[in-house]
Amino acid sequence: MLSIRPITLREANSYVARHHRHNQPTNGHKWSVACYDGDRLCGVAIAGQPIARKLDDGRTIEIRRVCTDGTYNACNILYGACARIAREMK
Predict the structure, then answer these.
(1) What pLDDT does 15 receive?
(2) Cα dihedral sign, 53-16-7-42
(3) Which pLDDT tens digit goes with each residue over 6-37?
(4) Architecture of the CATH domain 2-88
(5) What residue spans of the chain are helical by DSSP H?
(6) At residue 55, does pLDDT exceed 80?
(7) Coil, helix or strand at residue 37
(8) Mean pLDDT of the chain, nearest integer
(9) With b meaning 16 or more CB within 10 Å and e meaning fewer, what string describes 15-43?
(10) C-alpha to C-alpha distance for 76 and 82, rounded to whole angstroms
(11) What confidence tier does 4 reach under pLDDT thresholds 50, 70, 90?
């Protein structure tokens, strides 16, 4: 069963560096979440302010990185968790 837990930016960037084939780790975030399959880390999502200044209205969140090891539905769960967190932070 997949579950979501908080993760530090350093840990999330380390996971991205190990598993992502073309994106580099990001610098800065509002929050990061991790997806676990039991005790195994199977994906991370890093959310932050939008890069484009015109979109940075104080309420918009940009998902900067989503990286998984291919676990079924891990990506969907990470995006869903980020959307729920963003709605709660209004």
Answers:
(1) 94
(2) positive
(3) 999 999 999 999 988 777 778 889 999 999 99
(4) 3-Layer(aba) Sandwich (3.40)
(5) 9-19, 74-88
(6) no
(7) strand
(8) 91
(9) bbeeebeeeebbeebbbbbbbbbeeebbb
(10) 10
(11) very high
One DSSP character per residue, 13-69 reads HHHHHHH-SSPPPPS--SEEEEEEETTEEEEEEEEES-SSGGG-SSS--EEEEEEES
Tokens of 57: 């209205």
Q: Which residue type does 69 have?
A: D
CB 35 within 8 A of CB 79: no
Q: Are 87 and 80 in contact (CB under 8 A)?
A: no
Residue boundaries of the structural domains of the chain: 2-88
